[in-house]
Amino acid sequence: MSLVAANGLQIDAEVHGEPGAPVVLLIMGLGMPAALWPDPVVQTLTGAGYRVVTFDNRDAGGSTRFVDMPVPNVLSAIWRALRRRPVSAPYTLDDMAADTIGLLDALGIDRVHVVGASMGGMIGQVIAAQYPARVLSLTSIMSNSGNPERRIAFGRWKALRAIIHKPPPPDDHEAVVQHLMRVFGVIGSPAFRHELESMRPLFERVARRGLYRAGTSRQLLAILATGDRRPLLQGITAPTLVLHGADDPLVPVAAGIDTAANIPGSRLEVFPGMGHDFPPGLMARVATRVAEHCRAAESVARAPSAPAA
User: Fold this and answer.
1) Would you say residue 169 lies in a domain?
2) Total domain count, the chain
3) Number of other CB atoms surrounding residue 306 within 10 Å
4) In a domain, 165, yes or no
5) In sequence order, which residues have a C-beta less than 8 Å from that of residue 45 and are 6 or more positions away?
6) Is residue 91 part of a domain?
7) I need a surface site. Which of 7, 194, 257, 301 has the fewest CB within 10 A?
8) Residue 42 lies in a domain
9) pTM, full prediction
10) pLDDT tens digits for 183-212?
11) Contact (Cβ atoms closer than 8 angstroms) between residue 168 and residue 175
């Protein structure tokens, strides 16, 4: 990966595939570097004729870390959000969307297919709503709309506790791998639990990139501070696919249903047995579905407009 100056920050990014091909932009979720994207996802998309851009969000991986900012009290912020009270944060999802547009500008990329997972889906939604000219299509995976209703906004406490649990020191790679095994053992796909050990190489790659607890906390505050995005989602015009696991313990499937209901013309697909992770047994199917959605969106964009009456 290489550092790219974007929106006043240094964004660690990598480009896969052939120059000149249409671009799929993959946006990662809370606290995780782009290294968590499984290779089959990138390979399926490049094999389908796309150039794929992956990057570390601000405060994660090798991108700019806001080390001079205080570590927020996450539990207090969650409590305020549950009571539907405002949450203050050093930045919001709008800022993270602006980072992403800045990255595209720096790379000389005009329009992209946006694919975001979890928090990355939220960022993708903001991009599609606020920068419609830059978006060919949107795929929102295991994400939500910011709807504060309890059954939609929050999953099981055990899953939330797992993701906010203090990770081990980042220089102890094996301890980080074990931490990720435990986290994804809680939030992962129940129908694919047997595949957890096979995900170890992915977690080892994440451990080498590094976890940054303070950044994860600030990103979580960005989500909470941005609040209800449903009015924003209703202005999205890009062809949209919403993918969600039926057994997601962190972001319940009700959140995916609600997201699709608030994006005009969107399509919802729910995967039985899938939780809040990237199980190897489902990745080829998910990536193929994304590629099909991108192709369909391109076909619509190329279709001649009907003559005026």
Assistant:
1) no
2) 1
3) 6
4) no
5) 17, 24, 52, 287, 290, 291
6) yes
7) 194
8) yes
9) 0.95
10) 999 999 999 999 999 999 999 999 999 999
11) yes
